[in-house]
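Bench notes, bay 3.
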Amino acid sequence: MESLRGIGRMSRESGLAVSALRFYDGAGVLVPAHVDARTGYRSYAPDQVLAARLVAVLRRVGMPIAGIRGVLACRHDPAAVDELLAAHLHRLEQGLVDARRELSSVRSLIEQEEHPVSQTTVTVRGHELSDALRAVRFAVGADPELPVLAGVLLDVTAEAVTLVATDRYRLAVSSAPVLTLDGPPVRAVVPAGLADRIPDAGVVSIAVDGTTITVLSDDDVLSGALILDDFPDYRRLLGDVGRPVPVGRALRAALAAGPVRTMRREQDGAEFAVAVLGPTPNGGITVDPVGDGVGVNREFLLEALDAGGEGQLLLSLDGPIAPLVIRSSRSVSLLMPVRL
């Protein structure tokens, strides 16, 4: 017992925060050599330091928890480890390709200051656009210091109109298929109040000319000014995160009615309920307010689950500081964890 390390020493030697060590214990990734039955105090064996350092390195390069578990399980098999690392490196390289594609548009955006902006007109089915808006509307921000977050981003391509909303603590993404597109792809931030008035029936035509938006339907004409500030880049956040777990009735009930921690916001002192979620070694999710899992604003989480609509919902956890991800057939939501 004298050679065992307490969780504080293990944190210092491995580079993993104490909260991370607790999380990886609950996930079955890095289980302590000994846990005091009375106090719950965790102790680690000397030969676990290397494994903990491996976890720390892999997390610094963004490897999901499933990949970390795989590397630890086959760390004595160089070929298997190389295969897992190569797959993760490919994901990182693809993210770099996406970043380069985004940066390549910078010059064209600058040139728009010197040349008139061309108009883009897109048509979609009203009910599909309305469904997409309902799936993201809950995440619209209200901070007067960040007016761009009080709008809904319309990211228009030839395939779809993707709607995005975020208030910094959560992010929701959904889309509606495009019927026709006339003009180049465009990104436009529409004030939430204006977006709420877009018709939900028939075929809707949306015209964006750089500063204004005009919406035409069979019965109405709607126009208004766009929010011209830059909207956060949402696409880099939507990669594969964690191992998805189906959200069934039991988990919904535990979230809605189960015990929570009460915490207070630093900005205004308002209290809010925090649900504490933790992964189980067999790939499930537990709700335990006294545990060392991932904290999340319960109201935000329930809103995200409701916005997912009908069909299967999948919830992913990937560590104490990574976003929680809720996926459904029509939308994706990300929720920032609460520091416990």
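Next record in the batch:
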Amino acid sequence: MVEDLLIAAAAAGTAGLIYLAAAARIVKQYERGVVFRLGRLRGQVRQPGLALVVPGVDHLRHVNMQIVTMPVPAQEGITRDNVTVRVDAVVYFKVVDPSAAVVNVEDYRFAVSQMAQTSLRSIIGKSDLDDLLSDREKLNQGLELMIDSPAIGWGVQIDRVEIKDVSLPDTMKRSMARQAEADRERRARIINADAELQASKKLAEAAQQMADTPSALQLRLLQTVVAVAAEKNSTLVLPFPVELLRFLERAQQPVPQRPEER
């Protein structure tokens, strides 16, 4: 009798171990478990750790809760100012509702990818080339809003969207290079003209000062002589008054005859 009890207990223990091994499931820390019993969703989501299910009746789906980095393939489109570009981006998202991610959409990764590509093409058509090149933060926010609106019903939250690169045709690159070069040349000419204007104002002030003080002109002339003598000792500089040149020019002009001399 005792032996029969021991055999029965051993058989029951073995059956219990087999059942436990078949019913035990491990849910990792970054996962959540969604249980379907006979095809119907159980309301309670299994937390990380050991989860027990009914073998043959329950089916456990593991849902990853980590942030997913998904690259968006380069999309070619025409901007609002009729420029053909290729733009690629990257989407960061995570699952916030495991049950909705499993039940409401067949494959939430594929759905997010297709929505990101469609939204990226739409953003290209609504934006100018200058916005794609310089105002990406605003476009990133608009792109994130377009993807996040349908993703909420899938139990997915869009964390961030970034435009990675904007590829332009070679002809457009050459045109932009010529435009940038012309703009730099324009700024250089404006700076040179402004420098000439400031120099002319200073020279006019110096000339006015020397006109009011003739001795200043003589001192400046002596400084010039000293500078030339210091550089070239064999050069002799003789100051020649400009007034003398004007006197000689007037002396060479013919004197008009008087009427009585004719």
